[in-house]
Amino acid sequence: MNEQYYQNSKMQTVSNATVEERANFYKHTYGHVAGGVLAFLVVESLMLQSEKLVQFMFSLTQGYLWLALLVGFMLVTSFAQRMANESMDRSKQYLGYFIFIVAEALIFVPMIAYVLYLGNPEVLKQAALVTIALFAGLSTVVFVTKTDFSILRGALTIGFFLAIGLIVAGMLFGFDLGLWFSVGMCALAAGSILYNTYQLKYQYATDQYVPAALSLFASLMLLFWYVLRIFMSRD
What we know:
Radius of gyration: 18 Å
Order of helices and strands: HHHHHHHHHH
Shape: globular
């Protein structure tokens, strides 16, 4: 979180806000997460209708091209997150969120198109339901219990670096990371949801529900990616 934001903003952090202000922040944040999911579905549907785009994305799923695509995805999403987090301009926050959603929709095109090609759309529904249930359950745990989930920060940082290293190694040396890697990534995504949900009170001002929603949306989509991979591995 950019400290300059708090110096320029008249708003206080959520942890120091009144009960009414805090409730309003959470209502807007989770409303924007839901809006992000809806926007993702719309954008994804539009992308899948373009046969040329689908074929192009499939052409990027092999070897070094897929690695280049992932690097590009990380650069674009990092830019979008910075735009949403560091700007006091609400329109720029929304623009950052939208860029992030479009990038997520694009990276999902090959996997979702493959599932649809196999004629098994039920896999998508099942993976989506499991992801939503896990997200809701993890969020409830944070709000109901008094556990300090900030302790997860170090483990998450190490875990994500290890995951990136394994993904890159798998691409360079041509080995499949397999089912257990997907299970591990689901656990990492779950930890990210716990951490980000807990940190809503401390990382954001009460008017920053858009970047707060983006952080939760990012963890939600990571979880969906690997839950979907697990369901696909059964076929």
